[in-house]
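Researcher: For the record, we're logging two predictions in this thread. I'll number them. Prediction 1 follows.
Model: Prediction 1, sequence and structure:
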Amino acid sequence: MSFTARLPDRRAVLAGLLLATQAAAAPRAQLKPPLKPPPKPPVVTVLGDSITAGLGLPARDAMPAQLQTALTRMGVVATVRAAGVSGDTSGGGLARVNFSVAPDTALCVVALGGNDLLQGIEPRVTKANLRGILQNLRQRRIAVVLVGVGAPPLIGAAYAREFNALYPALAREFSVPLYANILAGVGGSRQLMQGDGIHPNAAGARIIGGKLAPLVAQALKTIPTQPAAR
C-alpha cells in the first residue's frame, strides 16, 4: 500500500472538527443568564393604638386588614403589618417605635393621639412625642403617613384648638402626608361605631381603611422598590 493511501480523507477530518466544535459549544449555548428576582412588596407598618389593634374586632375586620384589602383592590402591591397596642399613648408609641416598626418597613402609618386626648395629656407633650417618632423614622429612612385625631370643642375650646393644630404643624415640619382625623365620617355614627362610641365596628374600620388607602398608595409611589432576597 502506498503512503498516500494511508492519509485521512480531508473532508472527514473537517467534518469531525466541526462536530467537535458544535459539541463543545452546545453546553454554553444552553446556559441562560439568571433571572432577576421580583421586587419585594413594600411593608406598610401601622403604628397605633386600639383602633389599629382592632379592639373588639377579629383581626380580619380591623383597620390594618381593611387597609390591606383596599390597597389590593386598587392594584397596589404591599404588605400591611399591624403594630397597634390598645391603650397606647403617643408616649407609648415613642417608647416602642424601634422594635414595633421593623427595619424592613418602607412606610409607617403613625396613628396615635386618641388616648392622649382621652387622658387630657397636654397637647405640647403629645406633639413632642409624635415629633420624636417622626424623627426616629426619618433617621431610619422610613416614609410616613401621619394620621390625626379630631378633638371635639366640648372638652374645652382652647385645648381642642391646640390639639387639633399639632397634626398639621408636624405634617408641615416633616413634609409628610396627613390624614387629619382617623374617625372622619365614622365617629358619632351608631351604624359605624361599637357600643362604646369610641371604636369603629367592622363597617367603620372598612371606611377608615378605604379612605386611608389612596394616601398610602400615593406615598408608596415615592419609595424605591427593593429587590427580593435571594
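Researcher: Logged. Prediction 2.
Model: Prediction 2, sequence and structure:
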Amino acid sequence: MSLPAPVERTPLHTRRITFRGYHRHDRLWDIEAELTDAKGYPFTSPGLGTLPPDTLIHNMAIRATLDETLTIREIAATMNGKPQTECALATHPMQQLVGCTMGPGWRATLERHLGGIKGCTHLRELMFNMATAAFQTIPTHHELLLRQAGEPVGDDGQPPYHLGKCMSWDFNGPLVQKHFPQFQGWQPLNRIK
C-alpha cells in the first residue's frame, strides 16, 4: 500500500529510527535502538557550524539489556553525532533506568528519571518506543517456543496484554471474537489502558 502521490516538493529532513531485539546466550535480552537525523540542505548549528546536506546531525544508539520480566538489567547509550558537545552528558542519566520495568507506567517512569532537563528528548523518545520492541521480541519469542514444544500458550485466564489497546483488538471487535472468543466483551479491572 502506498501513500497518494504528493505534489512537487523538496526533501528537507530525514529521521531514521531502527529497533532490533536479540536473545543473548546468558538468557537475557538485548533491545537496541538507533536514531539518525539529517537535513537535505546545508544546515547551520551553533555547535557544529555549517554542515553539508545529508550530514548526520543526530546519530545516537541505546542498548537495554532486559530479563524475562522486561526489567532493565544494563543500559548503554552513545551519541556519535550530536548538534552540541554538551548533548553527550545526557547518556549518563540513562543509568537511572536500570531496575525499571518496561510495562504499565513506562512513560511516567521515563519522565520521572529523564524528563525535561534531566535527559535528552531523543533518547527519551527511543526508550519509550523501545518498550514496544521489547514486547515484540520477548513474549512473542516465548510463545513461539511454547508452540514448538506443543505446550499451551496464554492459559492463565487473563487476556493477552495487547487486547483492548487499539481499535483492531477491541474486546468487542471481530478480531477478539475470532482469535480470542473467551475474552469477547471482557471488562478490565484496574487495568491501565
